[in-house]
Amino acid sequence: MxxxxxxxxxxxxxxxxxxxxxxxxxxxxxxxxxxxxxIWTFSLGLTGAAAALWPxxxxxxxxxxxxxxxxxVAWSVRLGSHIAARTxxxxxxxxxxxxxxxxxxxAPKKMFVFLQQxxxxxxxxxxxxxxxxxxxxxxxRLQDWLGLLILAVGIAGEGLADSQLKAFRDDPxxxxxxxxxxxxxxxxxxxxxxxxxxxxxxxxxxxxxxxxLSYPWGFAALLAPLFMYWILVHVTGxxxxxEQMLKSRGERYKAYQARTSKFFPLPPGG
Length: 270
Known about the structure:
Order of helices and strands: HHHHHHHHHHHH
Strand content: under 5%
Largest sheet: none
Structural class: mainly alpha
Shape: globular
Helix content: 55-70%
Distance between the termini: 55 Å
């Protein structure tokens, strides 16, 4: 059993590494690093679905495997399509453009290394999908449907936040202003919050709550929300985005920061 899970880790890492090497090639050819996040999202969906449907002792995929595969594909298609649509209307992603500017002449090489780090850093996400799909129970349980509900809420919430932001930006009267409408009054990054929230579905499905020690691998699924929180809140999500917003919106964004929760939706203050 342990060998199988180690083999899965290696296969997941190799697949993500190859796919993100392809993302680097697209970024170098087009000069638009926005495609990096598009390809990463679809890569995660493809690799995650393959991991979920990995045969169990040679048998055909069971209902839980199909459910978990459907969850990651639904998340990937929704988010990947949204990022792709946004990328088509920009010349470059300002976050990655800032990295490239700092890297100077070494930008191509350092971008490749950065994207490989992103690939291998994403292994816990796909591994969480793998262990959730292999939870050792026969029929679908209540917690499987709860996992589906959690991901549905995450996708719907993220989609609503994205549509509210787009509507705000499309109004010429809001040029130069900071979006604080709808969900954006409760969190400075509600889209990131709901993206993180959706990843809670996999530990809910993976952990056998009636007898946790019967499937200790299930606890590995906790790596998904932990990793996603870290990457969104402390690495490539909020920090570079807020730095960019402070440069472009200045005091307006500082006032928004002072009255609005950073990540978790909370009643607005001030």
